[in-house]
Amino acid sequence: MNRVKVLQAWLWCVSLWSCWLSHAIPLDCKDETGSLIQCTSISQEKLLDRVIQHAELIYRVSEESCTLFEDMFVPYPLHALRNQGGTVWHTKPFPIPGSKTEIQQISDKWLLHSVLMLVQSWMEPLIYLQTTLNRYDDAPDALLNKTKWVSDKLLSLEQGVVVLIRKMLDEGILTPSVFEHTLTPYDEPSPEVLESILRDYNLLICFKKDAHKMETFLKLLKCRQSNKLSCLSY
Amino acid sequence: MAYSLSLGLLYLGLLCGNGLVSARSELFTPDPSRGPHFTGCRSREQETFRCWWSAGIFQNLTEPGALRVFYQTKNFLSEWQECPDYTRTVKNECYFNKTFTQIWTSYCIQLRSVRENITYDEACFTVENIVHPDPPIGLNWTLLNVSRSGLHFDVLVRWAPPPSADVQMGWMSLVYQVQYRVRNNSHWEMLDLESGTQQSIYGLHTDKEYEVRVRCKMSAFDNFGEFSDSIIVHVAKIPSKESTFPTTLVLIFGVIGVVILLVLLIFSQQQRLMVIFLPPIPAPKIKGIDPELLKNGKLDQLNSLLSSQDMYKPDFYHEDPWVEFIQLDLDDPAEKNESSDTQHLLGVSRSGSSHVLNFKSDDDSGRASCYDPEISNPEDLASLLPGHSGRGDNHPLVSRSSSSIPDLGVQQTSEIEETPIQTQPAVPSWVNMDFYAQVSDFTPAGGVVLSPGQLNSSPVKKKGEGNEKKIQYQLLSDGAYTSENTARLLSADVPPSPGPEQGYQAFPTQAVEGNLWNGEYLVSANDSQTPCLVPEAPPAPILPPVSDYTVVQEVDAQHSLLLNPSSSQPAICPHSPNKHLPVIPTMPMGYLTPDLLGNLTP
């Protein structure tokens, strides 16, 4: 219990710190030489497009990683797990609606915040996933590279979303979202056991689902920006 | 802990479950061997979905209501709820409308028989995993370009996303796949996934009909929707006349130009081509004889040429030894028949060979050859020897006349060698052959009758003299004949021959037909000459000179030949009345000089 509390406190501090950082320090723009220059402004539409591109890429890579892992480690009868969308392994602070009608009723603010929340919630698990995958004996390099890449891209996605929020919502302050992550204890190796395999498999499935959410939200947001009428639920 | 527990439960549930709806939902294939089971679930636009089941072998459960579907959304771990809508029109279908459809949530459905409270089948899935989008609509094509050869073309195929899929909102991100094939072919060509709504197809063949169709699926998912209706793509081959027209023209002009060139070439090089293609057949040719001579009709030259051939010489030698170099100089009536007589004489020789008289074929003709036997004879005598054959290509005529002077020295030596041949009567080839003939009698018509003579016993000196005379002959005459002066000169040098001069006397003939001779004849200055033979040789011990023949100047009434009419002596024919040409040793050379004649006359 102490340990858990310590971890929670640490996580709180980390999230606070990250929020403070993102809020207090403006985004530094660096040119090729590395010197700090004033960030070149970018239009909101362009930024949104870039963010959507990021989300799409992440979503596609997540799907590929899931397939790779599935082909490599997961026994065939358990491939149906993928179809089932995995089990929720961590609770969300707020439920995300699943139906289209409900999603269409979500406000822009809420959409952006949801995306941000999702991005932030997946940063750590992906790092964890990298470590666990490295422990596998015959993990394909493509899988490792993809997970690494996704982790990096998540960071940039988060940056983009933060800027979007600032621009679209004119919110300077970001309320930090605290998640209670049930972090997997590191002192439980057992990489090749089926349980760990399933765990990792589930993680990948869930990540793919959440990436899809991110993409959907961002696209809806874009649709709303360009053409409000058709995107609204009828 | 809780997480791992839930995971384990799920795993167990999966293992225990009877039916599984796989991610790649195969459906609509009810398995009759099984009990009631789900045949599949599908969503078209990710907003609603349907599920179907089958009673299977349990036919008693086919009536509606016997089997019921319950579902549960795993998100909230809620209780099982029954199917919100059993489709009335379609049998065994459960329809979930928008309200009941949630993405990113797992659904589990169960097929239960409520009466028996038996769960026959269960399946879990998420809606986005069962989405099979509708086929795209509005498929059409436009021609991009046609290859230069007219055999290939490219098209751009366009379509629109299915209207049911809300692509604009981003609810569904679709990717498309275009397939095409040659019509009535069984194999479809598949192109790469395309996220846009158009695609180019390259490398299609003209005059072939192609079928093109397209289908779509959600990106990052595996379920393709149905194919759209196929469209026919066809481009007719355009017979590009314009492109072929100039090529044919160029071809025609090129051919015409080549033909003209060939014709010009042939006409310009006609001669050469004729030689190349039709080489002239070599006409029969005799060496040394110019066909032009034959045409011009200069028989003299021809005869000399012909006589220069070695092949004729043996014939001459063998056949008519004495008929040679007889030159008639018959005046008056004799002259009339001269030709005939000459020809008669010559005809005798000709009987043997036509070239008999041209034995030596020198420009000195018969006289030179007889006069200088040591020069000419050695070669000829050598040829007469049995061991000798034709002398090859030696042309005594040409060679001797031209180079007799320098060759003299050589020939002298050869003469010495050959003299024994001449003097020795034992020479077989010589036995029956005489170079000269003794005139034995005269015909009333003035013809000369010849008789075989005897060999000269002393031809040595004569030969030597003959050489000189030959030289002199060469110098003073053009070789064909000796003038009177020359004859005198020579006769002066020559001592009277010891023996009776006989045989070889030259009768100058004036009008020797050029047909037979080569123009080589001895011409005497005097015209009228009576044939008068001076048979006997002067008794003087000194051998007569080398002169081969004597100029007969006139013939006296006694039918004796006057060799030198200048002398007061009448015709020196002492012997003639007396001897009637007795056996007179043949003198191969020498002639009677006036002095000799004087001696001879009794």
UniProtKB/TrEMBL annotation, chain A:
Protein keywords: Disulfide bond, Hormone, Secreted, Signal
Protein's UniProt keywords contain Secreted: yes
Keyword presence, S-adenosyl-L-methionine: no
Signal peptide span: 1-24
Family: Belongs to the somatotropin/prolactin family.
InterPro entries associated with the record: 4_helix_cytokine-like_core, Somatotropin/Prolactin, Somatotropin_CS
Name assigned to this protein: Somatolactin alpha
Record field: transmembrane: none
Compartment(s) of residence: Secreted
Pfam families linked to this entry: Hormone_1
GO term, biological process aspect, one: growth hormone receptor signaling pathway
GO MF term list: growth hormone activity; growth hormone receptor binding
Species in which this protein is naturally found: Cyprinus carpio
GO cellular component, one term: extracellular space
From TrEMBL, chain B:
Keyword check for Kinase: no
Keyword set includes Transmembrane helix: yes
TM ranges: 245-267
Coiled-coil ranges from the UniProt annotation: none
CDD domains (UniProt xref): FN3
InterPro entries attached to this UniProt entry: FN3_dom, FN3_sf, GHBP, Growth/epo_recpt_lig-bind, Ig-like_fold
Secretion signal, residue range per the UniProt entry: 1-23
Highest taxon in the source lineage: Eukaryota
Compartment(s): Cell membrane; Secreted
GO molecular function: cytokine receptor activity
Annotated keywords: Cell membrane, Disulfide bond, Endocytosis, Glycoprotein, Membrane, Phosphoprotein, Receptor, Secreted, Signal, Transmembrane, Transmembrane helix
Residue ranges occupied by any Fibronectin type-III domain in the UniProt entry: 135-238
Main location: membrane
Gene Ontology, cellular component aspect: external side of plasma membrane; extracellular region
Protein's membrane topology: Single-pass type I membrane protein
Chain segments carrying region Disordered: 357-412
GO BP field: endocytosis
Family statement: Belongs to the type I cytokine receptor family. Type 1 subfamily.
Descriptive protein name: Growth hormone receptor
Organism field: Cyprinus carpio
Name of the coding gene: GHR1a
